[in-house]
């Protein structure tokens, strides 16, 4: 089972041994980046209790000199280790069920990947691949924290293209035979989370299913896993490993892109400081067609709206063609998550907004194929659910 051992495997985890896990678990550091008040609420909620808040640096609080914060984070990690804040869970996976606010349950599997099988750089073809363009300027703060850290926490979500539902889903039926590790409500509207230890016979059966998936997908595509969330943190881990500073392996939560509870939301575009009429006219000439091989994209501007039909022969998706056009023109672009907000903001003078199509079941089916053929997607292609639905820092793992 060589492929399994190299690409994805169980690990020795550190679980927080604290009275109140809801004060421990904290949402991914790259959420609520424009809302420092959210992170102030997290700080106040955690209080003096041991908390993952003390082990991460939220992007909302980044400034020109965070070295004091980074030193404090690394020192707190050492303090938590010395005072036995963690309990070890050896040679295991962790099966996770995340109950979201809409009542659905998203399933995941925590393990580690081999960083030698992952790369974030465009033009590479590893088995584990970034989905979106990595902004290298966002790597250094994470890298500085990791290279001096004894442990890692992770908000990385790794995707598999398991349309047969053969890897994670069978654990739902066997979880009653496994030890439950945690079951609690996440802070500040994060829903609920439960986790079970997967080891022994359950892990061996799981290994066989993962290996079967890897062999099958390797025959179909140039990649077998794709990074859905947390690529910049994983890129920092890759850089630290290549420099010989930390472990060859990095912790992730594996999720199935075909899980009905895993929602992909498109991220729309607004172009500013332009004549909307001129932009639309030029786009019709440059990247649109009336043929059947086209993708409809709605646009909105002051007192007007319409639909453009992006030429399907110019790229692997409407977004890839559109983003290349906007970048080549050097436009100022804002990225908007909500359609209502897009329409409202596009009504300002000298703006035009583009509504990207939703990620329906057909988009999920084609997702891995698009990346396999075209490489990484443009920056800000999609969001996996709303901010409160992102992964929380919970488990830890030694990296030195």
Walk me through the structure:
This protein is an alpha+beta fold. 32% of the residues lie in helices and 28% in strands. It has helices spanning 2-7, 21-24, 36-46, 67-82, 140-147, 170-174, 200-220, 231-242, 276-286, 318-329, 339-346, 361-374, and strands spanning 8-9, 11-16, 26-27, 86-99, 105-114, 118-119, 128-130, 151-153, 157-160, 180-185, 192-198, 225-229, 249-256, 264-266, 268-272, 294-301, 304-311, 332-336, 351-355, 382-384, 392-393, 396-398. The strands form five sheets. Strands 1, 2, 4, 5, 6, 7, 9, 10, 11, 12 and 13 form an eleven-stranded mixed β-sheet that branches.
Secondary structure blueprint with pairings:
Layout: H1 2-7, E1 8-9, E2 11-16, H2 21-24, E3 26-27, H3 36-46, H4 67-82, E4 86-99, E5 105-114, E6 118-119, E7 128-130, H5 140-147, E8 151-153, E9 157-160, H6 170-174, E10 180-185, E11 192-198, H7 200-220, E12 225-229, H8 231-242, E13 249-256, E14 264-266, E15 268-272, H9 276-286, E16 294-301, E17 304-311, H10 318-329, E18 332-336, H11 339-346, E19 351-355, H12 361-374, E20 382-384, E21 392-393, E22 396-398
Parallel strand pairs: 6-7, 7-12, 9-13
Antiparallel strand pairs: 1-5, 2-4, 3-21, 4-5, 4-11, 5-13, 8-22, 9-12, 10-11, 14-20, 15-18, 15-19, 16-17, 16-19
